[in-house]
Amino acid sequence: xxxxxxxxxxEDFAVDPYRCFAQLRDQAPVHxxxxxxxxxxxxxxxxxxxxxxxxxxxxxxxxxxxxxxxxGPVLAQMTGAEHTAKRKIVVRAFTGQALQDQIRAIxxxxxxxxxxxxxxxxxxxxxxxxxxxxxxxxxxxxxxDKKDWQQVSAWHSGVAxxxxxxxxxxxxxxxxxxxxxxxxxxxxxxxxERRRHPGEDLISRLCTAExxxxxxxxxxxxxxIINVLAxxxxxxxxxxxxxxxxxxxxxxxxxxxxxxPALLPAAIAETLRYTPPxxxxxxxxxxxxxxxxxxxxxxxxxxxxxxxxxxxxxxxADPDAFDIHRPDLxxxxxxxxxxxxxxxxxxxxxxxxxxxARAEIETVAAMLLSLLDQVRHAPGFGYRETGLYTRGPASxxxxxxxxxxxxxxx
Length: 410
Ligand code: HEM
Description:
Layout (H helix, E strand, L loop, with lengths): L10 H5 L2 H10 L2 E4 L4 E4 L2 H9 L4 E2 L3 H4 L1 H4 L9 H13 L3 H19 L7 E3 H18 L6 H16 L5 H27 L5 H7 L1 E2 L2 E2 L2 H32 L1 H9 L4 H11 L5 E6 L3 E3 L2 E3 L4 E5 H4 L44 H18 E6 L7 E2 L5 E2 L3 E6 L8
Parallel strand pairs: 2-10
Antiparallel strand pairs: 1-2, 3-7, 4-14, 5-6, 7-10, 8-9, 11-14, 12-13
Protoporphyrin IX containing FE (HEM) binds next to helix 6, helix 12 and helix 16.
């Protein structure tokens, strides 16, 4: 029996949610959280059902959770022909030839950022490297000026805080809204300029694309830019840090990946399964929905617990072990609609950036592994993860022996 006082909002859960997942799946797979009047589902089949039954569970809740800071409707709120058309524009900017060009830019950004740390033999993989890298890479794809990355990153943090907070004080809400308004004010002149002089970047494509013969308004383009900015940066930098954390903690698997870099995609897929950076996906029940262990009433907010679903023994054998060789991983399909893990969601709104994320993390991890020998936790470093909605290491201080190689040109 789950302790009746158990709460997903408790400090205990925040410190290590993974400790609670088995009990939740077994004893309270439809967990009600009265303080926020929401339901939390933890079993793999239940989460999959919610994410694929688009009639019964909608993304209506994003109108309150995301739209105010996105300054307009985001992709995940759209349905039907509008969703298909706009999703296609975004997908095209992240796949095919565009992806090949971006891999070169990712490589160049990573090489520039890592260079000053090489002689030191020490860095914080999250704050010194992964986070600035993810923002700079996304700015490149969007076609925004990289010199503004710190300012854009600060505004983006406010937007992300709004979307990913379970409870938000009025002061923090005001701060998040200020960030969103300033980001919008920064973007509008860029959009107007791209309408006059379009290039190859995503903002230009959004400005010149038409839906039903009509170009998108500044507001629609702004919302899609902020949507991509928020969706692309946070999970990517968290996945990179988590990949290194797991490989450092499993030195035999680190050695295997170093020896055979073709194992990197499996290591990334297993990282996404084992510790998905997006832990919660919200939906709204359109009608009463009956699950094996309880009913979610019509109109209720439902949170899909991706971390718990990915550790469900009904979906993966020995789910609490990190194992890049697990037979049920299915590396190739892990980045597609057929993935068994739910780190990219599933159904209509499954991540559009999965292939890009794989290419980005693979490129950067391969470079880091070749430049940093004997990567290990820095002495005295205390590992800590933060976040209920998106979750990752607060920092990852590592020591390493610099390899006597410069980053290979890409
Ligand atoms: C490891 C990295 C990533 C993870 C774990 C991740 C995770 C997710 C998840 C769980 C969803 C589903 C949300 C829902 O169903 O409501 C999603 C949607 C989305 N992701 Fe990602 N994401 C990653 C990287 C990216 C990147 C690099 C982009 C860049 C374009 C991106 C863009 C999007 C967009 C635009 C959506 C909304 C799609 C729609 O509603 O049709 N993501 N992502």
